[in-house]
Amino acid sequence: MSTLITRAHDRLLVARHILTQLELIQQWNAFGKPVLVGAAAYGLLVAPDIDLEIYCDELHIEDGFEVLRACALNPHVHSARFSNQLHGPDMGLYWQLRYLDEDGLNWKIDMWSVHSDHPGPTSAALVEPLRRALTPETRQAILEIKEQALLDTTLHCPSIHIYRAVLDDGVRSLEQFKTWLTRHPPDGLTDWKPGPPNR
After folding, report:
1. Sign (positive/negative) of CA torsion 126, 88, 115, 50?
2. What is the pTM of this model?
3. What does CATH list as the number for 3-119?
4. Which of 153, 154, 174, 194 has its CB 3.0 to 4.6 Å from that of 148, i.e. a possible disulfide?
């Protein structure tokens, strides 16, 4: 196993530990169906971020505050945020926690509670297609680009564009990705999904 993949695996173990410590899945289960999405769901974790989407038959702001309140009592949690984005492009309620782990690493936990019939695009819809599309070679390339991009303060774009560049267009380095971005500038939400892997 490569060093990059080992590091991603170790970060995933920490992310799972945090989810367990905060009992986030269990807490959100009381109000909807929580789904782990983003890099932690794909095994591509580089930045200390955890993403959840919670699908609810009914959305109540007070439900999310109940979850935040319980989490805020944990001594590792030092910040909590809420934003009503129901009338924005994401069409949901946004919740964020900041968690300082035992090694002093500051984790950002992003959570979106949305209606069960959300029209999309959603991150949950990308999880299985992306898992199926990844090969050891493309996983390695994505992790390498993500690690380098994290150190580049001039680069700001969602990771989904890295996945698309690597899986659809054969990008294999940060410089190639920067060139790719000039031809495919990020433009709001995207419903992109990968095709089957070329093994």
Report:
1. positive
2. 0.94
3. 3.30.460.10
4. 174
